[in-house]
Specification:
The chain has 16 helices and 16 strands. It is an alpha/beta fold. The mean pLDDT is about 95. GO terms for molecular function: NADP binding; oxidoreductase activity.
Length: about 425
């Protein structure tokens, strides 16, 4: 993101601002609003949330006078607020996608069905889309990216979340000619495939977290989704279904991520994975056959090789998202998009599922996500985890730990997410 600061400062000096519309005023969205308030050349001018008070508070946290905030129910009311330079709030996300002055729509909802519809509408109305909704991206990101390209706008995942931070390391290494052995992230909580919001209710209370969201972290779904996004952006593959997930320190990573015959855990090179013990960082394991470069890396205290770790010990989630907004508008470039169909996240039963039961989606009691190679998912007819919130009705008994297939369920075909997924399959 070199020189973005100067570009933004130049915009402000010229009296121009990137106008941002935000959908979702939760923790991530509110953090982004406040970070942008510290920046030049960019401003959040309208926020959509079903909880209007939450949207209002996002502005108030940044120091906004509550009396200046306008509730906009119609396009005309929103445009009037923007013309007057007053911050607007609405409970109608579609409204933001249709406002001419908006340059970029940011999705911070975390709900795949909502995120897919928001992105589609924004693209149709000529808006750049920056999404924090990795779940929607892994499900229909390929079609959204294609539609954005055809419309002459940018669709991208946001900087700051782990997939984008990993991609930065990957791009850095590949540009320098290193061979990438593995890319991954740290996981800072235990992996329990069969946990539920009910089993985590006390932990959620102590952490002040949403139990369903916390469940998506503990049952591994969030990690599987994030690493599938990395796989689809880079072409790296999961070495085994669910990845290996070893426990290790940063110093141990170059030795662990090596072929089995060389003392490591891998069946093949060029993989995505996660590690218990290096959170909240992200990493890339790289190598080179050039002896002189190896000598230089040893001199630079990168280790004796032949494998080396590039490690970023932090990711600032939505606080970094404004960099993707700026990159989309100023350079017309995405931060991270699916360029390959390398991985899918399949739905696996958390318990025995009976005919007539309705799946309750990511972070629920019925299913968890497992990353698999896209080729395997296609050949086996696995059900994508991102679609499990689309009124999926179980048609036959499914055992605990069994991967669900399309033939096991019926779902709501009218759902925007399902329709985009169907379109993606034929484009």
């Amino acid at each position: 993101m070199l020189n973005i600061n100067y570009k933004l400062a130049q915009l402000e000096e010229e009296g121009r601002f990137i106008k941002v519309g935000l959908v979702g005023a939760g923790q991530m969205g509110t953090g982004m609003v406040n970070q942008i308030s510290l920046m030049k050349g960019m401003e959040v001018v309208i926020i959509a949330d079903l909880d209007l008070e939450r949207a209002r508070q996002a502005y108030i946290y940044r120091g906004e006078d509550p009396g200046r905030i306008i509730k906009a129910d119609t396009r005309e009311e929103a445009l009037k607020a923007l013309e007057q330079g007053r911050p607007a709030i609405t409970d109608n996300a579609r409204l933001i996608c249709e406002l001419d002055p908006i340059d970029v729509v940011v999705d911070a909802t975390g709900v795949p069905q909502v995120g897919a519809e928001i992105a589609f509408l924004a693209i149709q109305n000529g808006k750049h889309v920056v999404t924090l909704n990795v779940e929607a991206d892994v499900t229909v990101g390929r079609i959204l990216s294609r539609l954005a390209q055809r419309a002459g706008v940018v669709y991208t995942l946001g900087a700051g979340d782990e997939p984008a931070c990993i991609k930065e390391l990957y791009d850095f290494a590949e540009a320098l000619g290193f061979k990438v052995i593995a890319c991954g992230k740290g996981k800072n909580n235990p992996l329990d495939y069969y946990c539920t919001p009910e089993s985590l209710i006390e932990i959620a209370r102590v952490k002040g977290a949403n139990p369903k969201m916390l469940t998506s972290f503990y049952d591994g779904t969030k990690t599987m989704v994030e690493m599938a996004a990395v796989a689809n952006a880079t072409g790296l593959l999961p070495d085994v279904p669910g990845m290996h997930g070893p426990q290790a320190t940063v110093e141990e990573l170059p030795r662990i991520f090596e072929l089995k015959e060389r003392g490591g855990i891998l069946n093949s090179l060029g993989v995505v994975d996660f590690v218990i013990g290096v959170a909240p960082g992200v990493f890339a394991i790289v190598t080179t056959d050039n002896l002189k470069v190896r000598e230089e890396l040893a001199y630079l205290q990168m280790g004796e090789g032949p494998n080396y770790v590039l490690y970023r010990p932090y990711h600032l989630t939505s606080l970094e998202t404004p960099l993707s907004i700026a990159r989309a508008v100023i350079y017309g470039e995405p931060t991270l998009v699916p360029r390959f169909h390398a991985a899918e996240v399949a739905a696996v039963a958390k318990k025995k599922l009976l005919p007539g039961e309705i799946l309750d989606g990511i972070g629920g009691t019925t299913v968890y996500g497992l990353i698999v190679k896209a080729e395997e998912a296609e050949s086996q007819g696995y059900l994508p985890m991102g679609l499990t919130g689309c009124k999926c009705v179980v048609k036959r008994p499914v055992e605990r730990g069994e991967v669900l297939r399309w033939s096991d369920i019926s779902l709501e075909e009218e759902n925007a997410l399902v329709q985009l997924y169907r379109l993606q399959k034929i484009m």
